[in-house]
Amino acid sequence: MVQRNDDVTRRRFLRDGLWGACLAGIGGVAGYAAHKSQRTDWVWQIDPYKCIACGNCATYCVLEESAVKCTHVHAICGYCKICFGFFDPEPYQINEGAENQMCPTGAIRRKYVEDPYYEYTIDEPLCNGCGKCVKGCNAFGNGSLFLQVRHDLCVNCNQCAIAAACPSQAFRRAPADHPYLLKSVDHA
Amino acid sequence: MNQPQGKTDSGVVIGALIGTAVLVAIGALLLVDSTGRGGSGLSDAYELDAVKMARFDPNLIACHEVEPAIATGFARSRALTLDGEGRLYIAGDKAVHVLSAEGTLERVIAVSGEPRCVAVSSEGRIYVGLRNRVEVFDAAGERLAAWEPLGDRSFLSSILVAGDSVFVADAGNAVVQRYDKTGKAINRIGEKDPTRDIPGFLVPSPYFDLALAPDGLLRVVSPGRTRVEAYTFDGDLEFAWGENSIRIHGFCGCCNPVNIAMLPDGRYVTAEKGLIRVKIYDADGTFQSVVAGPDQLVEGGAARVFENAEDAEASGFDVAVDAAGRIFVLDTIENKVRVFVENQKGRSE
User: Fold this and answer.
1) Is there a domain that residue B147 lies in?
2) Can you list the residues of chain B whose pLDDT is less than 50?
3) A118: which strand partners?
4) Of B34, B42, B225, which is closest to A55 when you measure between CB atoms?
5) Is A31 within a domain?
6) How many domains does chain A have?
7) What is the ipTM metric for this complex?
8) Percent of chain A whose predicted confidence (pLDDT) is above 70
């Protein structure tokens, strides 16, 4: 039997195989690094300037407790004594009594700071994202209360059920490294 | 080959299953509201009903509108004033537009920033308040002076010329600064001072207006207290009036009225944001009548402002009054000036 010169010897096979493996490894590492540096993860978020606080966020989320919560930017807040995100439009008295509060779940806390200023904070576990306070604050106040998807709760569905049910198209994708769309003081 | 009796063809079973699945899928598509048009399904307790809040007795409307409205020519109008001859000075974008009493554009005065307020002296000088400084122009629009800027915290929201003084309402610092006409500071009005029984202005949002009443006293709005306070030029608080209420006789929300003007007979014209209402109070501060409510002032009514953050931000309408008592309302949503006349005056004219 005639042996051909270009037959693969064991030594050659091992050498070429090693080279190939090295090149594949280098290429793989480079590709992975390039992919990692360019890849952007996206999450769902609400544009607060488009949101009309319709209430759908409270009921359309696939989670039992909606991932949408009210957010408060204190830099915009007027620390009003009579906050229309907190008080019923016709309160019996200006105090924290449940009968005077607008939030159906009592998710806003009111704390005296100094005369005549009060601080308002959101008790997130109680907030269901209905947006009633957002409407009141937008219309009468500075709009410092608004809805945001909380990413410690959101499961980031490919097709968000609330986004599909949003009548004002306020839901959009935001980069995961800047997942919140907050209102700014200088907007007005 | 014959099918054994009592046995079902597996094709029929599979077909029935597929058919059932298709029917279920179609039913689900029809029954499930995937667009949100069905509403949230929340109870009335979660509803903030703007239409209900805006409701008032229509018989209280004592004015009618004189058509047509005057276009401001701005994308973002901010303030309005009139001179003694009825010319309109409208501040917006980065200019002041001067319009004749008939609404014809006479002059455009370019300003170095976004003007927040404007006033005209009896000599025809135009004082423009920007965020934290005042610029002065002559009647032809030539810039005469730019006063020393106030601090970074300042946010000028209203300006008034009275006699030899210029009063500037600084919403950022919740104080009225009095200057002479050269820009030299004279005194500050409304700072908290228990020894003079002055509670201090409460200004939660960038609306803080002032006007001069026929009695010679300043009228300054303390919006966070939903009242109007009367001060001497030296800063003594004389009296105050105003009540917080969603009802038509009061000022609604956290911080109203946003703007005021004085009628020649000493009555007040007030403008509120949120529930956009323009009303008239008598010289003692007793509610008298409605110039126009949300349904008259906003296309889409009160609900529009409650459902749109941008419209809500722009809902601080300005008001001005001419010597004949006509009421000019600067619609900062639609960027036009609407003119209202009291019904009795309208009939007599």
Assistant:
1) yes
2) 1, 346-349
3) A112
4) B42
5) no
6) 1
7) 0.79
8) 90
